């Protein structure tokens, strides 16, 4: 990659600005698209602008700032740039610019944070402008060479044509000259009706290397002279390392050093990871677990239950006078639901490789936010920004976990104690499971009121439980309230509530146990969709009405919600009887700027074994960049959502997480996977996400079908606790 003169940055200001948790930088956003001086890639090819490097053989290198963890953002973002660039897609490749370079170049590549289904919806405008600006510069360079007006030239498939004369040239031939031009200030984007690449299900760019095994993940990094580290942190969050007896492992094979890491952890560095882990397992360690060791799942549940009936609460959405309407209702229905802690359980455990010297700190890792990882390296190394950088690699699973940077900080702290030696830190699966950033635990009481004609007149929803932002981004709280808690429950915005009720009150009693919460794929949508959509199903049956028709009456003012719901109902054949022994359930929701719905068909054996035969899913993301990827995301969402529904759930004993490996924290197998029929129905005019929205509707669609099959309501997740499993 390029070498640039880095500006002097105050390390403390930078670290505070990023908060090291994926919040993005607090320094000014600047988006220059190049400059009069040619900047070159590592191979000497000219950079037309920050987004586009073109080699003499017409290969187009598109730089992608967001992270790739299987969701397809790498290909989708490249499509956005290539659409406006008018390049030959068969010659497109990609690379990750480093966050250190981004800072040095005034954040030319924008936001590196990859989560919340923001990869495309949060950067589509400026990356397309990057491609359009590069195209304009390439055309201008050709026009200058031909001494003709640029307005007489067009570009298609990396070929520039002078229309009047028929002269042609290729991008590779004019890239050097284009790189010297002043970038345009007025950059216009195509009308969506003229898109030729956006909206096409092109093959993913990262698949060939994955198939051939040449893709390098963080855990694959190998550097000359590298040593390996294993680490153990206090199993109870809030506890500390009291002591360890290094003499007990003196002389064990391969061991190079035993060291304290911060106030809470101890690490062993050895020639191989196995030697490091073996020695660490043999090391006597004494922890000071503190008061949190008294906490259990039962004590947490009791505390949350108390929040359902009283005490202060933040109001996220309201209209009318709900409490008065409930008092005057002809009939009221009440239910209490709960949703547990969930672990990300990425296939690749947390890891990072760090090389520290007094003049340089370099990190190699998979991260969902290169800038946050960069900030963590700065903080741990105590070096200035121009002496640090992070090399981003593909992630072996993220799901929100790798938006955190604890593992990066640990790697740097270990490397600091062995300057000049590259250290690869790998968490064991047990360490990874014990020190996750878990989906927050919540309970929810829902109360509804009907009039004498079975019309829904009041809806009260009170959530009691944990706030992610209070722990990870307290600066994002709004007068103490966590707006993320109300995902899918808002009056407006990119996660609006899909029903109109005359009297509505949705509130949150915030209660934060010591277990650290995190952004688990789908985040608060997962439980909110179950709470709302299962309870709406309860209300439909209490009113003696068809679940679809009951919802329709409440959705007249929510056409996009209604459109996806009706799409899945029609495709699954809701108006016709299902096959003998098969039962159906519906759910819909809005989140991350998109509208989604699901309809499930299941059968039940002996009341405890569920066979999910088929799920129909509809998604309206506004614009669909790569429909083929969206279909795969939908299917993957159901794997994640159904795994959480059936098998998920982290429990706490003596202050620590009990599930430490896949023997106690399972996931669904291929044999249990239903047929997934996707309806991608972009209505245009907005940009929504696709990686997370459909996860939330998997659970309620199946739970509602289970009620249809058995007449029993399941209000507690996971189903394993009800002795219910896949058939």
Automatic annotation (TrEMBL):
<dbReference type="InterPro" id="IPR037165">
    <property type="entry name" value="AldOxase/xan_DH_Mopterin-bd_sf"/>
</dbReference>
<dbReference type="InterPro" id="IPR006311">
    <property type="entry name" value="TAT_signal"/>
</dbReference>
<protein>
    <submittedName>
        <fullName>Molybdopterin-dependent oxidoreductase</fullName>
    </submittedName>
</protein>
<dbReference type="InterPro" id="IPR000674">
    <property type="entry name" value="Ald_Oxase/Xan_DH_a/b"/>
</dbReference>
<feature type="domain" description="Aldehyde oxidase/xanthine dehydrogenase a/b hammerhead">
    <location>
        <begin position="212"/>
        <end position="291"/>
    </location>
</feature>
<dbReference type="Pfam" id="PF02738">
    <property type="entry name" value="MoCoBD_1"/>
</dbReference>
<dbReference type="InterPro" id="IPR046867">
    <property type="entry name" value="AldOxase/xan_DH_MoCoBD2"/>
</dbReference>
<dbReference type="InterPro" id="IPR012368">
    <property type="entry name" value="OxRdtase_Mopterin-bd_su_IorB"/>
</dbReference>
<dbReference type="Pfam" id="PF20256">
    <property type="entry name" value="MoCoBD_2"/>
</dbReference>
<dbReference type="InterPro" id="IPR052516">
    <property type="entry name" value="N-heterocyclic_Hydroxylase"/>
</dbReference>
<dbReference type="InterPro" id="IPR008274">
    <property type="entry name" value="AldOxase/xan_DH_MoCoBD1"/>
</dbReference>
